[in-house]
Specification:
227 residues, 0% strand
């Protein structure tokens, strides 16, 4: 997608990359910040308590994200023995990432409504496009990270909720087979026209529609159709 955008509209490609960098940086910074709040300074000592994108971006993961639409940032480390509550503080650290994405999406949507609704700038202004991409990317990032499979953030919540011995089989399946299934789904999504991640795209677009009181799929089509 990035190469297509770059050839057709460098400005739009730049806006897309900038939105990805902002989204990933806020996501990872939030993990580090909540870890610090809960008593662990591991991330801070490793230079991750920063809004500098270079501290969070994994080169291979970022290139993969640009080329095939799926990628990753550097995981934020923490020491569970430093936390006040090793079980639930770990959940708070994990969910801080997607929570920050939902907040950023909401703030970006509010900015669009104020700018466009107040007739400050037009709908297809590059700033509006950037803010819209922030909304959409952050919603997709949030819902994707709720998947209860390691290394995604949702896995920490599952670990906390299903610690009883009777759930050992479920935890074992998610730990061993979950990442393999996720990888297969990513490959299918990247290499075929099948929308195997509809369980993410449907709530992401639905939430976007609510935040903007508009059809986000149609607006994205208008943006891409204009290049």
């Amino acid at each position: 997608m990035f190469l297509t955008l770059l050839a057709a509209s460098p400005a739009l490609a730049f806006a897309w990359v900038a939105a990805i960098l902002v989204s990933l940086t806020i996501h990872e910074f939030s993990h580090a910040l909540v870890g610090k709040w809960r008593g662990d300074d591991t991330a801070e000592r490793m230079g991750r308590l920063t809004l500098n994108p270079l501290a969070h971006i994994d080169p291979f993961g970022f290139v993969a994200l640009l080329l095939v639409g799926f990628g990753w940032a550097k995981p934020v480390p923490y020491n569970p023995y430093n936390l006040r509550d090793s079980k639930w503080d770990a959940v708070m650290i994990a969910l801080a990432g997607p929570a920050s994405n939902i907040i950023l999406a909401s703030v970006s949507a509010l900015a669009i409504r104020l700018l466009v609704g107040g007739e400050v700038i037009t709908e297809l202004n590059l700033l509006v496009v950037f803010l819209f991409l922030l909304v959409l990317i952050n919603l997709f990032l949030a819902f994707f990270n709720f998947i209860p499979v390691a290394p995604l953030d949702g896995s920490k919540l599952v670990d906390a909720l299903f610690q009883a011995p009777k759930y050992a089989g479920l935890r074992q399946f998610l730990a061993t087979r979950g990442p393999q299934i996720l990888l297969v789904l990513i490959l299918i999504s990247a290499l075929t026209p099948f929308d195997v991640f509809g369980f993410i795209s449907i709530p992401a677009y639905g939430t976007c529609n609510l935040l903007l009181s508009d059809n986000c799929s149609a607006f994205l089509g208008a943006i891409l159709g204009g290049i």
